Amino acid sequence: MTEDDGAVCPLGPDGSAVRGLTEDPAATGPRADCVRCGEPTAYPAEQPGATLCPVCTWQEAQRGACSG
């Protein structure tokens, strides 16, 4: 695959990859820890669900991209 052929793997339907890599400037207070590595995330501590840091989010997106 080259950049010129236009082939791109679509993002997951829930948009979690983009959310995990984008910090919310309105969020204040303590940050949730990543459930995989323990590093701080961009999510507030009261964020429901499994929170991932940007590195783990990126790695998860790579694992899921174009897997058949």
Describe the structure.
This protein has two helices and two strands; from the N terminus they run αββα. By secondary structure, the protein is an alpha+beta fold. The chain has one domain. Strands 1-2 form a two-stranded antiparallel ribbon.
Give the overall shape, derived from the CA principal axes: globular
Mean pLDDT: 75
Give the N-terminus to C-terminus distance in angstroms: 16 Å
Kindly state the percentage of residues in helix: 25-40%
Q: Note poorly predicted spans.
A: none
| Total individual domains | 1
* Biggest β-sheet description: 2 strands, antiparallel
Total E-strand runs: 2
State the secondary-structure class. alpha+beta
User: What is the radius of gyration?
Assistant: 14 Å
Protein name: Small CPxCG-related zinc finger protein
Features:
68 residues, two-stranded antiparallel ribbon, single chain, 25% helix, 2 strands, alpha+beta
